[in-house]
Specification:
Number of helices: 5
Structural class: mainly beta
CATH superfamily: TonB-dependent receptor, beta-barrel domain
CATH topology: Maltoporin, Chain A
Distance between the termini: 60 Å
Radius of gyration: 25 Å
Largest sheet: 22 strands, antiparallel, barrel
CATH class: Mainly Beta
Number of strands: 44
Shape: globular
Strand content: over 45%
CATH architecture: Beta Barrel
Number of domains: 1
Length: about 675
């Protein structure tokens, strides 16, 4: 009934917009004219012969969301599987790909964590500092190298135009408190933005509390024909991880510290040059039995909570818990790219070199010596490193209504040797506002250190894993009607040696392995509308994303932890509108999901199918001069939702907030 009612509402809104757009005055198409930075050569959205979504700063400002993962779910229509809510921990999937198969970038710099995809969203970037988010649906290895296996997400930070101090404070149920402060100043061609954020909650159920702190600073210097960008950020968050990785031990806890430093140069128009260098370090402390004065405390060589001794039952009794897992990963990368134009079109070539390393007390090969792990009574005694070099060459040719883009990436990994990722995209404007396109692209991904080395109470890794690969075929169309953009595509991905954690029956442990084959067919469509005069329009913006997937595997009847638990149906709808009260705005976000696959219910021991999920978020904003007051209802329908088996998500959560800013005169 809820789904049917929602479909009716969406249909009425779409019909109203269609009539308004077709019969109304012609105007510039905002989305069509947005420049896409994810492509090797930046180009207009209208010219890209691929499925790309763009989430703008205006979308973020109105959305009833508080974290990047929520933005990607409701605005981008991606499969975002939460363990911890409000940005604590989520895994992102594009078109049924796994959490490790998407590339996360900030200003075009790749920031995936080689330990595990669980850390990929642990980026020190605040929502208020984001200018736009570009989502590449489908493989991008020929542009960005490995990890852009099923898609890529590029977060582009904002360059402020004025001196400003802004404050965003929110509070709500379960002891929730958010406070973000940001200050920007401009001196000539130099702009600097410094931001601080603190987020905390007591948790919506036992052991789901969290505390997050982050700080970032970005400086940009405009050159005569270029831009220098320097970015540093730090994120520190600790959270109760109730049943995150296994329901057998619900008292889990995790502490993550992530830092990033990057510098980039973009220079030239006729012969554009792009140079960048970055260093990302992440500390991860995972406690299977949470250590705290109200939880387990170490006494001698064991951890005790009252009369309970942390450990694992064996035939001979309880085997004591030996201590926490400590990891430190480092990724250092450098990129150089060059673009030029000839009679054959736009050419882009470049090279990327990166060094990935981990030291740990559980992941990697045994070290000859040990290193003390900070903030813990432990020593790093395992290590692993690998080097990557990617050379890419892409060519884009446009002749009237016809365009063709092709390229090749040659990727060398010190452990897995040389691999190639070719691809081609072809587009044609059947009408001035209707484009059809087709593409064929190959992609590749390296195993993470967790895939290769992690051994836990319920997991067994496989150090002999091979890289996974896929070939993706896609046909699509884009329609531009004034301020309305509609896209649609059908695609087929033929995956080989895909990596997943699987088991044949509930009693077994999870094993990482290469699935023999996984063929995925899908249909996706999207719609975006923006009003010409946002402040006065009744309907200010509308967005719709829908994806249908069907996968066939030839790997036996396994229970899957990731690869086979894709979304059959994923519908995301958002609507921002005014009412008949001045300065009052309503922002709605709706998400319907039907997930394939099943999980083992810890209480009953039975295999349970995933049930359909309906999520509705609502934010009501009231503007009083420079003060923006808001009331947000997360999960308005109070639905019982589960993204991962045995990890329930919160019900209705009411949050009140205020946002304000002060402008200062510009410095000359």
């Amino acid at each position: 009934m809820k789904l049917r009612l929602s479909i009716y509402i969406i249909g009425i809104v779409l019909l109203t917009l269609f009539q308004k757009v077709v019969l109304g005055q012609s105007d510039t198409i905002p989305l069509a004219e947005i420049e896409i930075n994810s492509a090797a050569n930046p180009m207009l959205f209208k010219q890209v012969s691929r499925s790309i979504q763009v989430i703008t700063a205006k979308d973020l400002e109105a959305a009833p969301v508080y974290s990047l993962d929520e933005v990607l779910r409701y605005c981008g229509g991606l499969d975002v599987r939460e363990r911890g809510t409000l940005g604590v921990q989520s895994d992102v999937s594009i078109r049924g790909g796994g959490m490790d198969q998407n590339l996360i970038m900030v200003n075009g710099i790749a920031l995936n964590d080689p330990q595990t995809g669980h850390h990929n969203l642990n980026q020190a970037v605040m929502l208020s500092n984001i200018e736009k988010i570009e989502i590449l649906d489908g493989p991008g290895s020929r542009w960005f190298g490995p990890n852009a296996f099923s898609g890529g997400i590029n977060i582009i930070t904002r360059q402020p135009l004025k001196n400003q101090l802004s404050l965003d404070v929110s509070g709500g149920q379960h002891g929730l408190f958010f406070a973000d402060v940001s200050g920007s100043f401009k001196i000539g061609k130099w702009v600097n933005t410094t931001s601080f954020g603190h987020h905390q909650s007591d948790g919506y159920m036992r052991n789901t509390d969290f505390s997050m702190n982050q700080v970032s600073n970005e400086s940009t210097l405009k050159l005569k024909d270029g831009l220098v960008r320097i970015y540093v950020g730090y994120l520190n968050k600790g959270f109760g991880a109730n049943s995150f990785y296994t329901a057998k031990y619900p008292d889990q806890y995790e502490q993550i510290k992530s830092s990033l430093a990057s510098v980039s140069l973009e220079k030239g128009t006729k012969l554009p040059v792009r140079l960048s260098a970055s260093w990302r370090r992440l500390y991860d402390r995972f406690e299977l039995f949470r250590e705290d004065k109200l939880w387990y405390q170490k006494q001698g060589d064991v951890y005790i909570n009252g009369s309970d001794t942390a450990g694992f039952p064996t035939a001979g009794g309880i085997y004591p818990y030996q201590g926490h897992n400590y990891h430190r990963t480092d990724v250092v990368s450098m990129n150089a790219g060059l673009g030029f134009k000839t009679v054959a079109g736009n050419t882009n070539l470049g090279i990327t070199a990166s060094y990935e390393a981990i030291i740990s007390n559980v992941l990697g090969d045994m070290m000859l010596d040990t290193i003390y792990a900070p903030s813990g009574d432990a020593w790093y005694n395992h290590a692993k490193n690998r080097e990557n070099i990617t050379f890419y060459l892409n060519q884009n040719y446009i002749n009237g209504r016809f365009s063709i883009a092709g390229g090749l990436a040659a990727f060398y990994n010190s452990d897995y040797g040389l691999h190639f990722s070719p691809g081609v995209d072809v587009g044609y404007f059947v009408l001035d506002n209707l484009k059809v396109y087709g593409s064929v692209n190959q992609s590749i991904r390296m195993p993470t250190f967790t895939d290769l080395y992690y051994q836990g109470p319920d997991q067994v890794s496989n150090p002999d894993l091979k890289p996974e690969s896929a070939t993706t075929y896609e046909l699509g169309a884009k329609l531009f009607l004034n301020r309305l953009t509609v896209t649609g595509s059908v695609f087929h991905r033929d995956g080989k040696h895909l990596i997943d954690w699987v088991k044949e029956n509930p009693e077994m442990k999870w094993h990482s392995m290469n699935l023999t084959s996984l063929k995925t067919n899908g249909i996706s469509c999207s719609m975006q509308y923006f009003a010409k005069e946002v402040k006065s329009a009744f309907v200010q913006s509308v967005g719709l994303n829908y994806t249908f997937l069907k996968s066939n595997k030839s790997s036996g009847q396994y229970l899957s932890l990731y690869a086979l638990d894709y979304l059959d149906h994923n519908l995301a709808f958002n609507l921002t509108h005014r009412v008949f009260v001045k300065n009052l705005r309503f922002s709605w976000m709706f998400n319907f999901q039907q997930r394939n696959g099943s999980y083992v219910d810890f209480t009953s021991g039975e295999v349970v199918r995933y049930q359909p999920v309906h999520r509705v978020n609502l934010r009501v904003n009231y503007q009083i001069k420079r003060l923006d007051l808001s009331l947000t209802c997360r999960n308005l329908l109070n639905e019982k939702t589960v993204d991962y088996g045995n990890v329930p998500q919160p019900g209705l959560w009411i949050i009140a907030g205020l946002r304000t800013s002060i402008d200062f005169p510009l410095s000359k």
